[in-house]
Amino acid sequence: MRKKDFLWLLAYPVYQIIGTIRHEGSHALAAMAEGAEVTEFVFWPNFGLGKFHWGYVYLEGSTTWFTTAAPYFCDLLIFFVALLMILEAKPKRRWLWFNILIIGMLSPFINSAFNYSCGLAWGRNDIGELLGVLDPIAVHLFFVITLLFYAWGLYHCYFRKKTWHPV
User: Fold this and answer.
1) Segments in the chain forming alpha helices (H)
2) pLDDT, tens digit, for every residue of 58-117?
3) Of 65, 153, 68, 48, nearest in space to 108 by CA
4) Burial status of residue 75 (CB atoms within 10 A of its CB: 0-12, 13-18, 19 or more)
5) How far apart are CA 23 and CA 54, in angstroms?
6) What is the rounded distance in angstroms from the CA atom of residue 90 to the CA atom of residue 84?
7) Kind and range of the H or E element at 90?
8) What whole-number distance in Å separates Cα of residue 31 and Cα of residue 67?
9) Is residue 98 helix, strand or coil?
10) How many C-alpha atoms does 135 have within 13 Å on its Cβ side?
11) Do β-strands 56-60 and 37-42 pair in parallel, antiparallel, or remain unpaired?
């Protein structure tokens, strides 16, 4: 990592909002596909529900576990597309490569890892809900395999010395 790359840390609030839009937007799209109505969509940090949240979606109507799990399927899809972009398309500009890495790979990894660990510890989030309605072995297997894939992809695209990096 170059010294100039640390300047991208200043863009963290933007990355966080993009990640929150992806997460909450996945819930909203899945809910609409299941026939529910989105009554409120918040993607900025707030204390609107009595405690701190990065964002939330209020729904009217019933949904299944798919709406709860949608952000993690979306994370997997976004990660896979970003991995292909970096390995196959090989962006020529470092800023583009770096943003694909952060938004497309690092953000899904952090979102899934954070929510999985919080769900295990407290059980009061999407993962806790999924563990209550689905076979826990299937939920754990999905997250363990997915997080290992994310770690492999990040290692392969960034940390491995032989991997191509733009100038």
Assistant:
1) 12-33, 65-84, 94-99, 107-121, 126-133, 136-154
2) 899 999 999 999 999 999 999 999 999 998 888 888 889 889 999 999 999 999 999 999
3) 153
4) buried
5) 10
6) 9
7) none
8) 5
9) helix
10) 4
11) antiparallel
Structure-block tokens of residue 158: 């960034």
Q: Are 54 and 45 in contact (CB under 8 A)?
A: yes
> Using the 8-state DSSP alphabet, how is residue 40 labeled?
E
Please report, for the chain, the start and end positions of each structural domain, with discontinuous segments joined by +.
3-159
Tracing tokens 């899945």 back to the chain, one arrives at 30
Rounded distance between C-alpha atoms, residue 111 and residue 150, angstroms = 11
Q: What is the number of other CB atoms lying within 10 angstroms of the CB of residue 68?
A: 21
Q: Is the pLDDT of residue 167 over 90?
A: no
**For the segment 108-150, what is each residue's pLDDT rounded down to a tens digit?**
999 999 999 988 888 788 999 999 999 999 999 999 999 999 9
CB 59 within 8 A of CB 36: yes
Q: Are 128 and 119 in contact (CB under 8 A)?
A: yes
Residue 53 CB-half CA count within 13 A: 16
Give the global pTM: 0.87
Quick check: 55 and 24 in contact, CB under 8 A? yes
Write the CA distances from 104 to 81, 113, 138, integer angstroms: 8, 15, 25
